[in-house]
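User: Okay, second chain of the day. Same drill as before: sequence in, structure tokens out.
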Amino acid sequence: MSEKQPLFLLVDSAAPGPWNMAVDEALLEAAALDGLSTLRFYQWGEPTLSLGYFQSHTERNEHPASLCCPLVRRISGGGAILHHYELTYSLTLAYGRLPSGERGVLYRIVHEALIAALTNWKIQAALVTCGYFAAEDTPPCRKKNEKQPFLCFQRRVRGDVLCGGVKIAGSAQRRLQGALLQHGSVLLARSAFAPELEGLKERTGKLLSAEELIQAWLEPLAKGLTCTWQAGELPAATRRKAESLAAEKYASPHWTEKRNK
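Assistant: Same drill. Structure tokens below.
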């Protein structure tokens, strides 16, 4: 993307887990079919646990603090995320809009832009520079029989963002023929439903609002993606697809519990 091109920007209100996951998948399909490339920021209507695509549904019983929270399953890999005091983003790009290079390039662009945004509050953060890339549509690489922590923010992969020695941001990808979805989470503060995880507030003493972080993040993201922002609303066709996915897939126990071993 050598010339600046408009990228569709959505900043959504907090919503239930099935809707949030459905919109991400619907936008991925829109990118593949229609070339609609979108950056979306969103939050969750109540504390919600999202399982990675490859995680067993029964694993959630290993995390008592979040057992009372609603549960959804993502289409991307990685560990479970407790969505509470955090900001979630998704980036759906048609293949013609993807930066050149290995798949880790997009992780680096987005996460380096986040690091730049945090300097507005004199917060120092850095990328994890060793290890495998975050999982997309294949299981994560690891040593044979090595058990990964249940929670995403207790795992570290190359490209994750660290602040004060703890992981405060990570992302995962899912590809569809003709398009890619990358979505991720920034941990703003500790949640009672995942008390073992510290966020930016605990590491820095600064509580950032999602709105503040979005505004600071947009400029370095535009530079890294070589784009301009075109704000708008979810297209009608994409909304209809999301409504169908939310009801028939993401709210369905068949999808959420599809992996039980």
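The first strand starts at residue 5 and ends at 11.

User: Thanks, on to the next one.
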